[in-house]
Design goal:
By secondary structure, the protein is α/β, with parallel strands linked by helices. About 50% of the residues lie in helices and about 10% in strands. The chain contains eight helices and five strands.
């Protein structure tokens, strides 16, 4: 099966939800932020602060190209992963993309105590970041509205992916 990339904003639960979806779909799970941390010895946030955002985005693009050589992976990406170096277009051509969409308010509630995210450290910064990224995120093959209850998100994402695979709605949006 093609690999599946879960995209979205910081705080949208891509890693936690992604692990559970991968398990339910019998896919191997990979988190791009964890991969970069392991290979570079620094978190993506540290790379941004020390080496600059462009350095991180180049690393993400190189990682994307390596990941596309594999199949049956469920991949949770960093928030900016699909936005740079035409990564979203590349992912959509060779894999399936899923976006769990939350409001800025819900995301901020999850992130406001997290001070290690340099690009979303205040509500205005988070709001601007979401506005900048929404156009790219909304191009995902499957867009699932985020729910407050984690189990609802899990069920909704699995259902949307299964419908997408069954109906062959390539390029069309899933649940809205």
């Amino acid at each position: 099966m093609k690999s599946i990339f879960m995209i979205g904003m910081p705080g949208s639960g891509k890693s936690t939800l992604g692990r559970r979806v991968a398990e339910a779909l019998h896919m191997d799970f990979l988190d791009t932020d964890a991969e970069i941390t392991e290979s570079e010895g620094m978190t993506p946030e540290e790379i941004i602060m020390i080496q600059g955002e462009e350095k991180l985005r180049a690393m993400e693009h190189a990682l994307l190209l390596r990941l596309l050589e594999k199949e049956n992976l469920f991949i949770s990406t960093g928030g900016g992963f699909p936005v740079h170096h035409d990564n979203m277009t590349i992912m959509k051509e060779r894999a399936i993309t899923v976006y769990v969409k939350y409001s800025t308010e819900v995301l901020w509630e999850r992130l406001k105590k997290d001070r290690v995210r340099p690009l979303s450290k205040s509500l205005p910064a988070l709001t601007q970041l979401l506005e900048e990224r929404s156009e790219v995120y909304d191009k995902a093959d499957i867009v699932v509205p985020g729910e407050e209850e984690a189990n609802e998100n899990l069920d909704n994402v699995i259902r949307a992916i299964q419908e997408y695979l069954r109906d062959g709605t390539h390029g069309a949006h899933g649940t809205r």
